[in-house]
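Late entry, written up from scratch paper. The run itself happened at the end of the previous shift, but nothing got recorded in the book at the time, so transcribing now.
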Amino acid sequence: MKIMIVGGGGREHAIAWAVAKSPRCEKLYAAPGNAGIAALAECVDISVMDADSLVAFAKEKDVDFVIVAPDDPLAAGVADAFLDAGIKTFGPRKNAAIIEASKAFSKDLMKKYDIPSAAYETFEDADAALAYLETQEAPYVLKADGLALGKGVLICQTLEEAKAGIKEIMIDKKFGDAGNKVVIEEFMTGREVSVLCYSDGKTVLPMTSAQDHKRAGDGDTGLNTGGMGTFSPSPFYTDEIAKFCEENVYQRTIDAMAKEGREFKGVLFCGLMLTPKGPKVLEFNARFGDPEAQVVIPRMKNDIVDVMEACADGTLDKITLEFEDNAAVCVMLASDGYPVSYEKGYEIKGLDKFDDMDGYYVFHSGTKFADGPDGKKIVTNGGRVLGVTALGSTLLEARANAYKATELIDFDNKYMRHDIGKAIDDEK
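Output as recorded:
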């Protein structure tokens, strides 16, 4: 098969790595890809949002299968464009991707179909939102309704902070049109766990669990980011919790979307809070998480092309999903100053050291090629630069391996958290 991946981040690099391993993949394209993906695929400089050019390229190259990976193009209907052109595609249509594109939609869906989640109210008027805050108790959870690069959630400890947050989202438009509507949600306590599920619109196959670290600084301090690291599996996601979620969250959500005329084919990302009253949904995404993909995909035994095609064809019930009995930890190497302001263009050294290291992976998030004195070099090109993933027989071993591996890579203004997976120390 000729396969094309739409996207150019760490999630797409992890997908490309798995697709390239498949004996079914004869040729791999990526649009736009990045410096890491270029080692696996032919990268083409087409924006993920340029549906017409993407479809035209796929037709020109006789692409058999397309994987639309990021949130923005899914929400904009890029998967629809491929499907409407008769090209088999992995990724939900726009009317199903709304489960991520609108937090208000997903909250209303959960209320209607009795899917466990936090209590909430939705507002389109800033004054009404401010008045509602006066009736609630701290801490406050504010969510911009639309897509905001994983940064549109504010957890405010005081009323003053919450009021400033409403101004930031709805009046100052920090997140653009994503803040036209805001969801104010009950604050929940407990462990956070991410579970990604393959779906063909009817059958749901949950993957192994993972846990993400969103805050920029050690000890979960600082601003929210797109993710500073992950580990898999989560020791807190027990068999009992998995059974509850399979019945009351994953299958119920896919069935609910079908009843609403929004058949969901692709990956449903379920962000869960394991509260004292049981698991509840924090959020849904309509695609692989980033950096969750970087720890979940390397542990998957199946040929990813077989699974993705089954999702597209509606034959997922024929697949038995299997994962290795091991663990993975991913530490994000970022540019110092992320997520606010940072410099780019610094040469990255040490990547070649991973060529012969089994069980170690470097997934590129924000990199590009630049001309150097000895030809092309790879330089930083984003806030999150590289995801360094390592496997181990246990989480503690994988964590030690991942941090050891981060020392092999160097670039100016390199920054990382030093406590990714620290929660697993509690499980010794």
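The longest strand covers residues 265-275.
(Scratch paper discarded after transcription.)
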